Predict the structure.
Amino acid sequence: MWARAASDDAVQPPLSQEVGYIVVVVIGLVIAVTMVFVTKLLKRTVGEDNKKTEMFMTANRSVRPGLTASAVVSVCVFSLPFLALEHRNAGVYSSRLHNGVSGPFWFAAGCSPMIVFFAVLGISCKRKIPEAHTLLEIVRIRYGTTAHIVYMFLCLVNNLFAVANMLLGASAAITAMTGMHIIAATFLLPVGVALYTFVGGIKATFLTDYVHTFTILIILCYFSIKTFTTDEVGSLQNLFDLVQAAGVRSPVSGNEQGSYLTMTSKGGILFGILHICANFGLVIMDTSFFIKAFSASPKAVVPGYVIGGIAYFAIPWCMGTLASSVVLGLENNPIFPTYPRRMTSAEVSSGLVLPYFAITIAGRGGAAGILLITFMAVTSTLSAQVIAVSSIISFDMYRTYGNRNATDADVIRWSHYRVIFFALFASAFSTMLHYVGVDLGWTLYMLGVLTCPGIFPTTFTILWRRQSKAAATISPLLGMATGIGVWLGSAYGLYGEVTIATTGATLPCVYGTVASAVSPLPYSVIITLFKPENFDWADFRNERLAFKVDARVEKVGTYCGDLGRGDFLGHWVLWPLPMYASKYLFGKGFFVAWMVAGLIWLWITLFIVGFYPIIDGYRQILDVWDAVRTSSRGKGSGEDSGSGDATPVQTVAEGKGL
């Protein structure tokens, strides 16, 4: 075990600062160097030249379904340090509210449906404008310069706050585990990311996503077993008894009979509403999601996003429930890190429930596992954000307004250096938020106010030919103004002041986020009615965007839409709402079945993320291996291996993206 701090209010880090620096710096650089080597190997063996813009930004639009699904899961695993944020204040001046089993479910339901839905937008973009690199190119071609600038602002705000949210949560968790200075963690986390993204581009991001996500799921599955080898837990039946006893000790205001073991939770459903709105905004206005869709092969977009979205659901649902149940059940046990006190709101808001869960069941080893998970989850997602912002600066600023005649070499040079620029800027912005008193909980809850105004206008841009230029330009700005007004007005009306504490409370954030998400819908429709357009989708192809033309995509939009609606209906209506309305309290048998289903789903996700990409991309893996062996034999026999020209394997493997 580790030594506790002298103060009852502080938990001494279970790991040393040296361990923190080794993970953040050394392992980060090792991964970066490995990805640089893999990038060069792929160039030599299968001709994937990351000095070409189309390869750097879109992987020649050849990524297969397995790697796409893995990347989709990785985009959302940055939320791992935040899984137990259902332990959350319901209001600024009220006692701490624990939503219990409903919190992890709503967390998962807030992510999975929107990932599946994005397949509709992704395949529509691939079909209508197959040469695009960013969402903003689509906006500019359809609506012109003013709308382009508006959406550029919306996307950059989205990316900046998403990265700040990740860095604040990850840095707090790393500091709690190792004692490493939080600002050092904030600036060092992006170092390795910037390096391998600088060299390898989006393909390096896909490959790193795979390695990181597979590693994360191995550790999570280990925790899922280790939990029940802990004497204080022992079995699912005993875990149920522990959680039930916690509800008796500390009843939950707003939950049915004060129980943690119910979906009838006012705080839980409010969190669910906030979370799904905010996540739709984060995804639809996140250029990295569009880049990954553009990078996928035509046949990979739908299966990649659908399989990835459904597989992801198990991670927050299963691990959130397991971690929260252990924390709630053992907070009064001497093995818990904060014993004899409960966790403070500051600790909960900083995302420390999952680390404390791991320490409780596995001691220093658990802390090391969470440290590695946090590092890999955040750097994996950070890589996608960095390449996304780099693409905006390169294509939508430089190539559009700086140099319309930019060559492939010009664009790739801008892409390279903007990777480093954004990594540094995001770290500095996160540091500023930390020093003004903003933590992970605040950014996670208010995020949707800023990210949601573009949901409907952007969706209409891709799917509805009638939306007018004025509607597309004005409605997101009006929506953001409405959302901010409702958010700040609710904070003042409910608590009598506008402060970081009041604006981070649940109700103002819910009201502001819903207003920000929903209000652009009537704004867009009403403005469009004055002068509707009838945009010809074929006009998207009038402008040459790619340096290398790609194939067209068949129509599968209706199929995607049915999948998206079905996923939303299942996760948001048919499954949870009857349980909420019936005021059902979990019995021991039901709780066991609930957890067994989650654990099975988690292990299936492990196999999907870990082995599906290998099975799906085995042909290119064999091509690379054959090319390496051929090259080795050539050198061994004294043959001239050439000066970098394509090998026979390269010719065969060209276009067989992993």
User: Anything to note?
Assistant: The chain has one domain: 17-616. Strands lie at 87-89, 96-98. The radius of gyration is 24 Å. The chain has 27 helices and two strands.
